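Researcher: We plan to redesign the surface later, but first we want a full-length starting point. Tokens attached.
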């Protein structure tokens, strides 16, 4: 699934990676911290198929009143080579050097770009990508 531009507004997605069993509060705190650090407001949350059953991610999106997208495995894998950071652990278990970065990029398609490398907050990584249109 690729989400795009709405009325001249560049769509920004928060890609999330995390360790198993994180709390929704930790996810919300990580999103707030990353959003403040990078000075962005995001439109929805995305993650990799390997994290599809992590309840805290869906709960965080629900509390924020926004969409939670699990990107298709093929899109996730295709976006992996555009990740800015490299984690051997992520590569081994998820098939991507950065779950959060690849998920954010995959959610917005081939023309998307990362706003910055992922940010690590405890057991959670957050990366922001944009559709590349007007911000």
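Model: Full-length starting sequence:
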């Amino acid at each position: 699934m690729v989400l795009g531009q709405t009325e001249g507004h560049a769509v920004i997605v928060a890609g999330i990676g995390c360790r198993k069993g994180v709390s929704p509060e930790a996810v919300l705190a990580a999103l707030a911290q990353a959003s403040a650090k990078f000075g962005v407001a995001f439109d929805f949350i995305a993650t990799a198929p390997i994290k599809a059953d992590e309840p805290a991610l869906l709960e965080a999106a629900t509390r924020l009143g926004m969409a939670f997208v699990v990107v298709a495995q093929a899109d996730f894998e295709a976006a992996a080579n555009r990740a800015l950071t490299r984690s051997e652990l992520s590569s081994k278990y998820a098939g991507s050097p950065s779950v959060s970065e690849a998920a954010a990029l995959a959610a917005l398609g081939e023309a998307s770009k990362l706003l910055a490398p992922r940010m690590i907050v405890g057991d959670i990584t957050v990366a922001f990508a944009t559709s590349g249109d007007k911000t």
